[in-house]
Design a protein that fits this description.
370 residues; alpha/beta; Rossmann fold; Hypothetical protein af1432; 19 helices; 6 strands
Length: 370
């Protein structure tokens, strides 16, 4: 009996994380069938790169001999359902496995013909850092952990000229030749206009990648989160005079410390220069002081800015750990750290920050009592 594993996905684009997973699967199974989707049923509103280019990028990767790249779902056209793909590859001499990441395992029961699918294949779960580590007995778990990269992160790297090392050379060449993944370029191109310095751009990149991971973990819109974080520090070196030059109304920041005013300036740029939705504007506005009515997007933007890997200050690791379990708990700990630090420095604390801390402490206390 041939042990065959199917590994599907958008591969938009295929990156080093995918390649590592496929190499590991090739070591564990007799045959690996890589199946790029035409359109994922969970991404029907998402505009992917043309399927022929995603297929071409896969062919550029140097996979092992027992890896087969299939165009079945692309040729089939329309929405790609795993049940159809599994039936297509089912044979009497094959024992079929279906490889998915641990984040995908949470939604298997929502798939088309999920119960029939479970009878036809053994789900082979590849853990990803930061996701639920619980083991479900109906699944088989890989003895390796997938690299913590996502295609969403690669697209940010393209916009910030940091894609080298995340994708293979052949894939990078196709991306550049075809001008793929320029979704965020209009935002990053404004860095020069508003004087964002290189060290702040590097921080922004790290915070955006961190925010994407949090957005995926907590089912928050990844694109909204990405744009908000790409823009969160756009006002860092902006002056009222610069805003006036671009006919952007200057917000009243009299009740804010100077260090926090860039968030208000950034929000004004997001609203008036880019015309971004208010949920993104508000997330940018509250990322330093936080606020009483932050939604999950706002919480993630504030947290990602605070816990990105470049941050080394006291207490940040505790907040990072909390962020893998609960957004509200992580925000409470972050706010407590901020307030404690400002008190030691005998520095002005924005009233909204203290109010937000009390609110999150109350929310978490109520949750603990349940």
């Amino acid at each position: 009996m041939i042990r065959t594993v199917i590994y599907g996905g958008s591969f938009d684009p295929v990156h080093k994380g995918h390649e590592e997973i496929i190499d590991n699967l090739a070591d564990k199974f007799d045959e690996v069938i890589v199946v790029p989707t035409h359109v994922s049923p969970f991404k029907q509103d998402y505009k992917a790169a043309p399927p022929e280019l995603r297929l071409k990028m896969l062919y550029k990767c140097n996979f092992k001999k027992n890896v087969v790249i299939s165009d079945f779902e692309i040729k089939k056209d329309g929405c790609s359902y795993s049940i159809d793909t599994v039936k297509h590859f089912a044979r009497n001499d094959r024992k079929l496995y279906f490889a998915i990441g641990s984040e995908g395992a949470r939604s298997v029961n929502k798939w088309k013909c999920a119960e029939e699918l479970k009878k036809l294949v053994t789900f082979y779960i590849i853990r990803r850092p930061g996701y639920d580590e619980s083991v479900l007995p109906e699944f088989e778990y890989a003895d390796f952990v997938g690299e913590d990269i996502s295609s969403s992160e690669v697209k940010v790297a393209v916009a910030m000229n940091r894609v080298s090392g995340l994708v293979s050379k052949g894939v990078e060449e196709i991306i550049k030749e075809q001008n793929l993944y320029d979704d965020y370029a209009k935002y990053t191109s404004s860095y020069k206009i508003f004087g964002l310095k290189e060290e702040r751009i590097e921080h922004t990149y790290r915070a955006t990648i961190e925010g994407i991971k949090l957005a995926k973990r907590y089912d928050v819109d990844v694109k909204d989160c990405t744009i908000a974080l790409i823009m969160h520090d756009i006002g860092k070196y902006v002056t009222p005079e610069m805003l006036e030059k671009f006919q952007i109304p200057v917000p009243n920041c009299d009740d804010l410390p100077i260090e926090c005013r860039h968030a208000e300036y950034g929000a004004a740029i997001c609203r008036n220069y880019f015309g971004l939705p208010e949920r993104i504007v508000e997330a940018v506005r509250t990322h330093t002081t936080c606020g009483m009515n932050m939604d999950a997007l706002g919480e993630i933007v504030a947290l990602a800015d605070y816990i990105e890997p470049g941050r080394k200050f006291k207490g940040v690791d505790e907040v990072r750990k909390a962020a893998t379990k609960s957004l509200t708990l992580a925000v409470e700990l972050m706010l407590k750290n901020m307030i404690d630090y400002l008190k030691t420095k005998k520095t002005y604390i924005a009233p909204i920050t203290e109010e937000a801390y009390r609110k999150y402490a109350e929310i978490n206390a109520k949750n603990a009592d349940k």
